[in-house]
Structures are given as C-alpha cells and as structure tokens.
Amino acid sequence: MAHYVDSEVGRLRTVLLHRPGPELARLTPRNNDSLLFDAIPWVGRAQDEHDAFAAALRDRDVEVLYLGDLLAETLAVPDARAEVTAGVLADRRLGDTLRDSVGRYLADQDPRRLAEVLMAGLAHEELKPGPGGLVYELMDRHDFVIDPLPNLLFTRDSSVWVRDRVAVTSLAMPARSRETSLTRAIYRYHPRFAGAELLYDPGLEHLEGGDVLLLAPHVLAIGVGERTTPAGAERLARRVFAAGLAHTILAVPIAQERATMHLDTVCTMVDVDAVVMYPNVADTLRAYTVTADADGEPRAQVARPFLEAAAEAMGIDRLRIIDTGLDPVTAEREQWDDGNNTLAIGPRLCVAYERNVETNAQLERAGIEVVRISGSELGSGRGGPRCMSCPIERAPLS
Ligand SMILES: NC(=O)NCCC[C@H](N)C(=O)O
C-alpha cells in the first residue's frame, strides 16, 4: 500500500478521518473550554455533517480510512494493546488502587470496545462496581477516570506524512496529548502501515500537524505559535534534512492566539502556486528560511515576507494569494469559521465549509472549484476540512 505525500495539492488518493462519536457527547458547559471546544455540538448532526464530508471525498475517488476502525484493528495486536493500555495507566492521577481497577476493566474489553473507551474516555460512574480507595471516593461523579478525546476529529494535528515517512506529533494542549499514543500505535502495529518509518515522536518538542504545510516537493512551512514551538520546528527540520525529505523549511511565526492556533487556520494551498490566506495577516506574515549547514544542522536566515521567501524556496516567480478582498470584519468572521482552512483534493479543487460565503465566492472567481460541506456542528471545535483530514497518499508532484 502506498503512503506518500509530497505536496498540499497533489491528487488526494487516501485520507485518514475520524468520524466523531461518543467522545463528543462528553462535552458539557463545564468542560468544553478545557477540552478545546467553543460550543456543545449536537452529536448526531455532527456525524451527519462528517458523513457528508467523507462522501464528498469518496465521490471524487478518495479512499477514506477511519481512525476508529484502524485503532480497533490495531488493538487486536497484543503488543499494541499492551503499549496503549500502559500509557493510560501511567496517568499519575489514578493512584495504585484505581489504576489496578482500570487495568482490569481495560483487560476485559474486546478490541473494538477498548478502542471506544480509549477514544470516548471512561466516566467515574461507568467503572462499576467502584473500586473504593481514596482517589475514587474523592472524585466527583462527573470526573473522568480516563479523559475523552473529542479533538480526535482533527486528524491533521496528530500525525503528518512527509513523503514516505510519518511524523507522529507532540501535541501541546493537555486535552490532546493522549491522542498521539493512539496514532503512534496505529502506524507502528497496524498491518497496513508495516514498514512505515516514524519521523517524529510524541515525546519530543511540541509540534502539531496543522502547522506543517508541504508547500512543494522538498519545501515545508512550519508555523510556530501557540502549538508548535521553535524547538519543535528545529527538531523536525533536523530530522527532515537528515532523511533527505526537504531542502528548505520556512519557519513562520504566527500569533499565539486561539483564532490562529495553527498555520493552517490562516493559510492553505489551493493550487500548486496559490494559497488562500487570511487578508488581515497577508501583508505581515514573515518567514525564516531554514536550510542545513555542512553538518546537517538547521540554520536560519533573517526573516522576510512569507510570500517572497516561499516563492524563492519553491522555485517559482510568485506564490499567488487568492485575494478574498474582504472587509476586515467579514474576513475576521470567516477566518474564525475556518474559511481559510480548505482541503485540496487536487490542484484547483478544494473542500470548504459552506458558511464562508464570501471566501468561497472569491475562490471560485479565481478559478478554484469549491466542494461545499456543512460544518455548523463540526466547526464548534474550531477546525475546518484541512484540520479534519490527514492525507496519507497524494499523487506525487515531483
Ligand atoms: N489544524 C487545526 O487548526 N486543527 C484544529 C484543532 C481544533 C482543536 N479544538 C484544538 O484546539 O486543538
């Protein structure tokens, strides 16, 4: 099975999605902020919207893999099961008595149910009979013994393929950090990925997939902000250079704010030489061009305007911006609703949320075909079509 991605826009052949499930039903007004959702999604409608997203991709000959299915299949492998379970039980909040009890509960579950528990978490009241012990007794009945992972929906962030290697990332927010123990197990143990080499690991410096853009074969951009640290960008650069996967990396500082948590919230590619970009940052976004010195160490030049640095690294005259031409208020509203977070199915063909009427109209005026999907519920987690997808195979551009 081919696993290969060398650009943002090569024809998409295989993509990893996560159909939202019971983990979304864990969100309440008390925990939605810490679980990184801005509202409480209607789960059934979110699933309908997600099914329509998957159908839009399948209709265009894209193979859709589901994270939940891959995880259940992975957990049939004893080593995978042992590794993932040990990760959950290492949570220091559990204490010995509760840890033993949770360990026995997990050991009793078949792979599919275990996958469900690992994704949806385990509530205090679901661990029956209660094990007693101080930790369990002092917990609130609304507390989780195993925290749910509602942000699994955003498969973009927990792994990213660079050519034939996969970087399992290191997620910065506590609410998401356990996600990568699941993606890592899938890539290490699922037969479909046998032989896949890991380029990055969750124990390393923070790095999230939403910050990594494959601008062109051998050219990456890495956003540095709320989620990806300069040290994460440097570590990935060193590994990418050592593996010969890129000759140039652009490190792109972005504001450390929720609205711009990843580079792909302000900029995504829609053609081999075109991006859609949040107009309010288009003139100010800068990039450090990073190349390897004689020892393979990443070295940065002084920062320059992003578009200029990107065009030079990509070997093109100009990186076109689809000028959304929006007034600042509309631009801000549509950026918040992931208008700039498109998923390219191929050059000049992308998936976008229908609600971003103005941005989509401008894309079409610029010759980009837009496949509109509804995201009223999906968007409550603050992520669009690119955030919700991890390309595993694209037709090579190089
Ligand atoms: N690449 C992305 O921008 N992903 C969206 C992640 C949204 C999620 N609620 C988060 O805060 O991490």
TrEMBL record:
Enzyme Commission code: 3.5.3.6
SUPFAM superfamilies, alphabetically? Pentein
Active site (catalytic residues): C387 (amidino-cysteine intermediate)
Query: Family assignment?
Result: Belongs to the arginine deiminase family.
- State the pathway, as annotated in the record: Amino-acid degradation; L-arginine degradation via ADI pathway; carbamoyl phosphate from L-arginine: step 1/2
Major site of localization recorded for this protein: cytoplasm
Q: Which reaction does it catalyse?
A: L-arginine + H2O = L-citrulline + NH4(+)
Gene designation per UniProt: arcA_2
Subcellular location as annotated:
Cytoplasm
Q: Which UniProt keywords apply?
A: Arginine metabolism, Cytoplasm, Hydrolase
Highest taxon of source: Bacteria
**Which protein, by its recorded name, is this?**
Arginine deiminase
